[in-house]
Amino acid sequence: MSTAASGKNGTWRNWGGNVAARPAREVTPASVDELAAAVRRAAEDGLRVKAVGTGHSFTAIAATDGVLIRPQLLTGIRNIDRDAMTVTVEAGTPLKRLNMALAREGLSLTNMGDIMEQTVSGATSTGTHGTGRESGSIAAQIRGLELVTADGSVLSCSEKGTEEERAVFAAARIGLGALGVVTAITFAVEPIFLLTAREEPMSFDKVTSTFDELWAENEHFEFYWFPHTGSTNTKRNNRSAGPEKPVPQLQGWFEDEFLSNGVFQVAQWVGRAAPGTIPSIARISSKALSARSYTDIPYKVFTSPRRVRFVEMEYAVPREAVVETLRELKRTIDRSGLRVSFPVEVRTAPADDITLSTASGRDSAYIAVHMVKGTPYQAYFTAAERIFTAHEGRPHWGKVHTRDAEYFSGVYPRFGEFTALRDRLDPDRRFQNDYLRRVLGA
Fold first, then answer.
1. Do β-strands 181-188 and 142-148 pair in parallel, antiparallel, or remain unpaired?
2. How far apart are CA 442 and CA 432, in angstroms?
3. pLDDT for 216-274, tens place per residue?
């Protein structure tokens, strides 16, 4: 099954199935020149332009009734610079292909998210991240960008450029598709290394009461809490001198495919058909995964397959507020009569200097809530969002939320910097859509 967005009768749909659009036309450029020409032609025809990757965003960030640009022919590595320790890659390259190609070259990104189906430009433009004490989002590892702007010109920017290029670089690493169409990205890389993953169950009370220590003691710490239970599953990833000790193939299939995808999918179906069974299923699910430890190269430890389709909301709160926020969420679910069959995911990121990064200027923790595709999620997400926003939460740009420009101008100190740059680069709003109108203002 492909994780790419599906198109039937000219309709584009996202991976989660909660967003649909009917573009006037689709373009699949094979070069930067062809992409620039498509942008210029859209301007002549008075059409808006949006690029779309694999459709993994749950917001309408890529939806358009104008020209939909599909970057799947703009793929592959352009250049590896071993002196600077950077790799320049075409924007439509899936993270999976980048990770595998880097591994063959003995190289790796420092940190990554937990899925690798997205394109590099889609993942970075929306702020995709993993978890890390010192290492930030995928966008925080960018050293240079190339993008086609609204007039069809090609703009390159980096932290070493002119004042204007540095301003573009600060914003365009997580540009929401509002500043131009990204055509190539230069990432910092390092020699490939080994990570030892230690996964083990832990009670909700223990993980929340010792969260600061668990965060401080591990390079990458995250956990999943199963609503309706006092149980979590924790994961600690730390660098290792080896030897390599991957999860045995059969065990990996059983735990990652059969339990985490197959049995989990059946549990979701049962929960949808009979919501009253969800607390019992949650108690069984939280006990299904046992402790394990393995050592492997980074992308094999950081990422895992996700075959159960879902809809997701995720907010970044100040790291020091995460435990209180999570306890409020647990109290709300316990009191509410809500039936939540999907675990809540908690991760962290250090402060960065990207204008609209969810970790911009503050050490952050992420709380992600999910509902299986096709289940009503509004009541749960509304209750969660009320808690997150009370802690000055910043929603992930590619996940469900109801916030607008007025809210963002209050939680992002540099919000005005981004909108002023957008006014300069896209005065006619060639790259606008309804989502950007809401989150950035008209």
1. antiparallel
2. 9
3. 999 999 999 999 999 999 999 999 998 999 887 666 555 665 556 555 666 666 667 67
Q: Measured on CA atoms in the order 389, 403, 54, 56, is the torsion positive or negative? A: positive
Distance CA 398, CA 57 (A): 4
Give the global pTM: 0.92
Nearest to 416 by CA among 151, 103, 45, 167: 167
Q: Order of strands, edge to edge, in the sheet holding 7-8?
A: 7-8, 11-13, 20-21
Strand 67-69 with 49-51, pairing: parallel
In what helix (H) or strand (E) does residue 212 lie, and over which residues does it extend?
helix 211-217
Beta strands 86-90 and 67-69, pairing class: unpaired
At 109, which amino acid appears?
L
Residue 301 near residue 364, CB atoms below 8 Å: no
Residue 191: HSE in the Cβ half-sphere, 13 Å Cα cutoff: 1
| Backbone phi and psi for residue 436, each to the nearest 5 degrees, phi listed first | -65, -35
CA 254 to chain centre: 26
Strands, DSSP E only, in 319-385? 344-349, 364-372
Q: Are 403 and 368 in contact (CB under 8 A)?
A: no
H or E segment to which residue 327 belongs: helix 322-336
DSSP 220-282: EEEEEE-TTSSEEEEEEEEEE----BPPPHHHHIIIIIIIIIIIHHHHHHHHHH-GGGHHHHH
**188-228, pLDDT tens digit by residue?**
999 999 999 999 999 999 999 999 999 999 999 999 999 99
Separation between Cα atoms, residue 202 and residue 92, nearest integer Å: 39
List Cα–Cα distances, 315 to 137, 205, 231, 334, 344, in angstroms: 14, 21, 22, 20, 12
Strand partners, 184: 90, 146
